[in-house]
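G., the chain you wanted modeled:
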Amino acid sequence: MQVTEVNVFPVDEEKLKAYVTITFDNCFVVRDLKIINGKDGLFVAMPSKKRKDGTFKDTAHPLNNETRDMIESAVLAAYEAALSSQE
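Predicted structure as tokens:
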């Protein structure tokens, strides 16, 4: 499985830096990933939904670190490219 497309939608907020849509193998789309500026730098948050008790639960997420790293690398590279093209 490969990330075949990444669409970045930058926002101008303190912690939230962008919304992201990714496509796997040109046939499966995941929307509403977020690029967050955390205390240790940028990271990718998976799409989530607020539950009745006020907590958030991921609606889609990788099952292992290898897949998480692959997604995060592709998303952050696309984010950096989007920032460069805006300048």
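The first strand starts at residue 3 and ends at 10.

Shout if anything looks off.
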